[in-house]
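Action item from last week, closing it out:
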Amino acid sequence: MRCTFSLIFAVPLMVSVAHAELSTVQSNRLNQILPQSYQSSESCSNCHIRLYEQFEHSMHARAFENPVFQYQFYDVLLPQMVNDNDSVYDAAACLACHSPTTFLSQDLRLPARDAGDKSLPGVTCDFCHTLTGYTGSSPGNANYRPSPGPIKYGPLKFSSDWHRAYSQFQRQSEICAVCHEATNRFGVPIHTTYSEWSASAWPNKGIVCQDCHMSASGRLVSGKPVFDSGVLAVNALITPKARGKIYSHNFPGARIDNQLHGAVKLQVHSFPKQLKPGQTMFIGIELDNSEAGHSMPTGAIELRLAWLDVKLRMQDKEWQLKAKPAAKTKWDVAGANPADKALYGTAISPGSRLYRAILVDREGQPTLNKWEAVDKVFDNRLQAGEERRELYRFTLPTDISGNLEVGATLRYLRYPPGVAKRLGIDAVDSVLVAKANKLIQISN
């Protein structure tokens, strides 16, 4: 099945050493949008300095200049177009969300990767605040409905204003879903954060994406969102009233460590309760993903992964417990697949339980290029609201006594060290999501 890019643009891309040139022709779905139709995010700072400063440091603002995106787009995808004309749809799909005003504008020249030109925007203030909805039956694959112009749509109601209009769409998860839900041209789901949320209990509780990712703390507090308060605008010519609810524009997500710390809860269980040297014991690690509104990990599932390490310690001795593969492919155990060695090296201890999704290309080989994926052959990520238990078995040595410490850690990696090596940058550090310990008395 082929998934035609939802905005149905014909996008000829010409790649050269100096530049890549993008031009679009007017489709029967959208009116012509000119480059000058969108204002820069910096222009919003004249009044909305507080929100602008938050936004400027967000990944939305840097969606285009992200080095991983630049590598995949310039070094991998665009060169493929020489031998694969259909890749034009993939390139259009990338730009439509990583730099939507670039995609929607005419006569735009994309600089070569080494040109150092940072003028091209990512996801701008004006783009989001001029969206009026989406086309089709459900949001996804950049099927947003743009309406650039003087009216800026927002989530708060005002009695009157010269350039604002209230939009219920701005308060719904669907405005996020237009880019955080997608399938490639082979019909393979490659971004599923919105559908993960939709399948969870949160929609029935009235919790939407903005309640976590635009709240003051970046997560729920006792199951409820907590927002900032104050004024939305500061200007010598106006006197805005204070608001009890202001949406943060930090957009914290997988690249913010504080967003990850404690996102999943761990508990250690052991049995039997009375243990003696030489006896076999069982250790259960309970992982609770009930706080997150989506799977763990989510987003760019071809790159992201989490893993569980379980170790036993007694005095100067340490044992690494090995997870048993749950499937013949062994994609869920570190070190069990030769394909992982070049990507992860020694970053993950062999035997650790992996939580990830695996996409494969036409040759059945794992791929990190989501546009090449013809199937998702494995996915054991922790689902939203899921409580999962991992079970380990260990036989105690006959010569030990005292306290045995069980230590469990769940760590997260944004992208593999092998990708960083290809980029020529330092490998990204893994993030500690959760840890739990338990002391067990060994009786003689």
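Closing note: Residues 257-442 form a domain with the Immunoglobulin-like fold (CATH 2.60.40.10).
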